[in-house]
C-alpha cells in the first residue's frame, strides 16, 4: 500500500514557503485526506481543515454544489470551489466517486473524480481504481494528495 505521508511532506513545505492555506472537501475518502494533511509538518500554520460532505445534502447546502448527480466532474469542481469559500483556503482538493462494492449512479466501483483548486485555477481528474472499498479509498487518498501537490508545484513553478 502506498504512503500518503510522502506527498504531504512536500505539500507542507510548499505551503510554508508560499503561504498556501490548504483545505479539502471529501466525500468518497471520508476524512482520510484530512488525516494525512493534519500530520504534515507545521500543519497548524497552513492546514485550514476539511468538509467531509459524505451525504449529498451537505454537498448541496454547505458547499453550494448544484443538485443532481454527485459522481461527476462538475460536482468535484464545485466541491473544491465551495470548500475554498467555507474554509477560507486558497488550495483545496476534493473527492467524489463510487467506492463500491456496488455501482453508484451508473458508475462502477473505483470511479473517482478529484478536483483541485489552487489560487483560483481549477482542474479535475477522473480516476478508475480497482480493489475493494478500502483499497479504493486508500488509493483515491494517495492519488488526490499527489494531484494537489502537482497543482501546488505548477502554481509556484
Automatic annotation (TrEMBL):
Pfam families xref list: CinA
Domain called CinA C-terminal: residue spans: 10-151
Full protein name: CinA family protein
